[in-house]
Amino acid sequence: MFQNIGEIVLLFWRTLCALPFAWRQRQKVFDQFFEIGNASLLMVCVLSFFIGAVIALQTGPVLVERGLASAVGGIVGISVAKELAPVMMAILIAGRIGSAMAAEIGSMRVYQEIDALRTMNINPIHYLVLPRVLAIAIALPLLVVFAILVGWFGGAVVAATNGRIGIPFQAFFDGLRDIVDLKDVANGLFKSFCFAVIIGAVSCHQGLVTIGGPRGIGRSVTKAVVNSIVLIVIFDYILTRFLLK
Amino acid sequence: MNPPVNNTGVSLQVRGLRKSFGGQEVLRGVDLDVRPGEIFVIMGPSGSGKSVLLKHLIGLESPDAGEILINGESIESADIAAKYRMALVFQSGALLNSLTVGENVGLYLTEHRLKSPAEIERIVAEQLETVGLAEAVNKMPAELSGGMKKRAAIARALVIDPQLILYDEPTSELDPLSAVVIGDEILELKRKIHVTSVVVSHDRDLAFGVADRIAIIHEGRILTVGTPDEVKRFNDPLIQRFLHADFKRDPQSKTL
């Protein structure tokens, strides 16, 4: 396990060192970015709508009963912006995109395509890892912006239409504006950026260390997703602790 | 990047090469000398260490002991890849499945930005023409047969304008006609660009058809090196068995 962590950190460091070559790889970054957005945007919207909706459904009736109707918007707003949108979207992207990254790079490794790159003096980190890590690091925070807005909208819809809550749209967003400020949204976006780097580095690393045939690729995909999710949850705590100061 | 040093092939020396995987010694002190511009075939039964040796020759594996010299310079020196142009034709072709054949062939030039896109397109077309794949430029590797993949891999190697070209089992999985085409290709390259070629194979027809010299490797050791005639005459039961192994069918047996 510690060897894996060390290798992931080393890969991340090498990717950072390759950043000056990012402009040369811009087409690949754009292709990956498009792939991530195209594959995930609809799913992000559906998931975040229902996340906002269920938070409103869980907290709304309890708060309204206690005369705290004005807090519903704020609670939905802050929990979606600071916690649920970044973490849930990161988990979604780890499953949807991290797995694809590990599978693609893993199969390239198994079928000697990475060796072929090396014989042509093409650095696999520049060619494969850098574009993927950059694309996911840009795409995930943008997806989280969508997720936050759609999550708030989902909460507002439930708050307005549920008989036990009955808070109009305007009142919901007034309450949300009272509690949530730009810094909370920025916290969520910063977290999502960190999660994106974790997903990119873990998934690419798992792909690069794949051995064996199709079974090895399957194992790498599973490990990439599981390790990404575990690290996301651990770093969520660490980042939250750090950002609360 | 990679400016041409000269137009002739390079010499290759292997000295006391040893390599183990998980406690099992695969190469047990291999010594070889490959002369500039020759076709050197390394033959041996499956599992004898041929492919591992080839991976060492291009720097994909690091030896536990011993050294590999190209024109007298260690392959592990930092600027070797910039100084000498080397290419490996993989057994499977190892074309990048996400790129078209044309993009695969031009990948080296594109990634190192050695030529303009129009120039790359022209070179790719030229090299694909050389290996008889001009019409496959826009096809994906998955649409090619085994022989076509190997020829595309040779075209990709040629784009580098190599001084040393290594072939890993170039005729495996090929029908006899395609195997002859690949063999002719190897000879043609020697004639046209004087490239040094190292061919790893257990295909006896290919080896004796194209080789200037042949080395026989068995259990990680070189048993003999010589011209095809010298190897044929070499008086070692193991080599003779390997060179003359054939199916023996009982004439009395009946097919159903």
Let me know the average pLDDT of chain A.
93
Number of contiguous helices of chain A: 8
- Structural class designation of chain A: mainly alpha
CATH architecture of the largest domain in chain B: 3-Layer(aba) Sandwich
The helix/strand order of chain A is HHHHHHHH
Strand count of chain A: 0
Separate helix tally of chain B: 9
* Terminus-to-terminus distance of chain A: 31 Å
Tell me the name of the CATH class of the largest domain in chain B.
Answer: Alpha Beta
Low-confidence regions of chain A: none
Note the beta-strand portion of chain B.
15-25%
The quaternary structure here is heterodimer
CA-CA gap between termini of chain B? 63 Å
Contiguous runs where pLDDT drops below 50 for at least 5 residues of chain B: 1-6
The tally of structural domains of chain B comes to 2
State the CATH topology of the largest domain in chain B: Rossmann fold
State the CATH superfamily name of the largest domain in chain B. Answer: P-loop containing nucleotide triphosphate hydrolases
Helix content of chain B: 25-40%
Estimate the helix proportion of chain A, in percent. over 70%
List the helices and strands and how they pair.
The complex is a heterodimer of chains A (245) and B (256).
Chain A: H1 2-17, H2 26-65, H3 71-110, H4 113-119, H5 124-161, H6 169-179, H7 182-208, H8 214-243
Helix pairs in contact in A: 1-5, 1-7, 2-3, 2-5, 3-5, 3-6, 3-7, 3-8, 5-7, 7-8
Chain B: E1 12-21, E2 24-34, E3 39-43, H1 50-57, E4 65-70, E5 73-74, H2 80-83, E6 86-89, H3 101-111, H4 117-130, H5 146-159, E7 164-168, H6 176-193, E8 196-201, H7 204-210, E9 213-218, E10 221-226, H8 228-233, H9 237-244
Parallel strand pairs in B: 3-8, 3-9, 6-7, 7-8
Antiparallel strand pairs in B: 1-2, 1-4, 4-5, 9-10
Helix pairs in contact in B: 3-4, 3-5, 4-5
